[in-house]
Amino acid sequence: MSLATKHRPLAKKSRKRGRRNPLATAALLGIGLLLTGGAYAAVDTVTATAAEETVEVDMESTATIEKGEALFNANCATCHGFDAVGTENGPSLIGVGAAAVDFQVGTGRMPMQMHGPQARLKPVQFTQEQTLEMAAYVASLAPGPAIPDREFLTNTADADLVRGAELFRINCAMCHNVAAAGGALTEGKFAPQLQTVDPVHLYEAMATGPQNMPVFSDTNLTPEDKRDIIASIEWMTDNTAMVGGYNLGSVGPVAEGLFIWVFGIGLTVVGAIWLTSRSN
Q1: Helices 199-208 and 223-238: crossing angle, nearest 10°?
Q2: Chain centroid offset of residue 179 CA
Q3: Share of the chain above pLDDT 70, in %
């Protein structure tokens, strides 16, 4: 037997030892995904914390208004026209006030992604400081609803929850659902859910009447009334106990009634047919 033939099994054995176990590859992939996910979560938390910080801007400062005008001309004038006088593609913003700009831009509805029955939510395109600068510019053109004071947003300890819930049922529930879960309207329009909306945007929506919503001025609903409504929405969001059974997402009596007719009565009919079809 030659020397090369004698050592061939050893070479085959060493090649076998050098192969990587498939489980090791899966483990490395899993560790990489965990590390990547952890890093993304950490960055997202830091970003969210930074976004929650309140930005102070002098809304009446000439420098702030000039910055806002530059941002407006670069991003909004295409539809709303220079000096915000409006065009065939967008309405005039004269007199809408700072609250309307803060709501529309601060929720990501503006700049509008596409024309449709109403502007849809999307990621916010501007920082809070830039949003306030554009709001200051629009507010300088003509009087309009201002961004609400924090006392009506954070000081909810003095709010009347019962009265707020009553005002919500009278003025809001027919569109936004009695549990603020939102609802469908006509011609592709809809009333959005209110359970995760920032209190300042809830107040601004009532004051400015965006999309298909009516305007609730201070003569219709006082600032204290708006505060009570906001507090009642926050209470409904925090207290989701399902009294009386499963609430089917609180989508309203029509959907819940349809569920009972289709599934409840349907199962009853199927059970009756099965019982009567059995032989004695």
Answers
A1: 140
A2: 16
A3: 76
Select 148-241's CATH number: 3.60.20.10, 1.10.760.10, 1.10.10.10, 1.10.530.10: 1.10.760.10
Residue given tokens 């209470």 in the structure block: 235
* pLDDT tens-digit readout, 262-278: 888 888 888 888 888 87
Domain 56-144, CATH homologous superfamily name and number: Cytochrome c-like domain (1.10.760.10)
Q: 59, 168 in Cβ contact below 8 A? A: no
**Residue 7 is which amino acid?**
H
Strands (E), the chain: 183-184, 190-191
Q: Is 175 exposed, middle or buried (0-12, 13-18, 19+ CB in 10 A)?
A: middle
Q: Judge if pTM exceeds 0.90.
A: no
Residues 6+ apart with CB under 8 A from 123: 108
